[in-house]
Write a structure and sequence with these properties.
The chain is mainly beta and 163 residues long. It is 7% helix and 43% strand. The protein has helices spanning 47-51, 59-65, and strands at residues 11-12, 18-19, 21-26, 32-37, 42-46, 66-70, 77-82, 89-94, 98-104, 120-127, 133-138, 144-149, 154-158.
């Protein structure tokens, strides 16, 4: 059973052409949905807007639903996952062979962001794959982060130091 299909929840390319979405993940508290795609970006969406969406949503409603756009990858972002528990971290893997660990930037909240926007910054850049990073997973206690790639390797990272 499909509950809703928010027409505005999408990745638009530079020329307003739709771009494929490869991965998505809900924040543990259910307030955000992260999507990643072919446009080299991660987008964070308010789930409050999703639950109240209809096919007549306007561009203004779309903009209010979009909390943040993260764009530090140089290739298509193939996977995105929030850490368990408080969802402090967001991990992303891309075809640029890099895993980025994102953290919400609370210092930016005192800047000129509206209350409906968030700022996330990449706090760690993990390298070691020799090809696209296809998937990743946090252990239930966030002690480990596992990543896998087209290089036929699985790398296990320390979930605290990311070494």
């Amino acid at each position: 059973m499909r509950i809703t299909k928010p027409e505005w929840l999408r990745h638009d390319g530079d020329k307003k052409k739709l771009s494929a979405i490869f991965s998505l993940d809900f924040h543990p508290d259910g307030t955000r949905l992260a999507t990643s795609g072919m446009d080299n970006k991660i987008r964070l969406w308010s789930t409050q807007a999703i639950s109240g969406s209809s096919s007549s949503d306007t561009l203004k409603e779309q903009q209010q639903s979009l909390l943040s756009t993260l764009s530090s990858h140089s290739g298509a972002v193939l996977c995105v996952r929030f850490s368990h528990g408080d969802g402090r971290y967001l991990a992303s893997g891309a075809d640029d062979m890099v895993v980025l660990i994102w953290e919400r930037d609370s210092s930016a909240m005192q800047g000129n962001l509206s209350p409906s926007e968030e700022s996330w910054r990449p706090m760690r850049r993990l390298t070691g794959h020799e090809s696209d990073v296809c998937d990743l997973a946090w252990s239930p206690d966030n002690r480990y982060l596992a990543t896998c790639g087209l290089d036929n390797s699985v790398l296990i990272w320390d979930g605290a130091t990311f070494e």
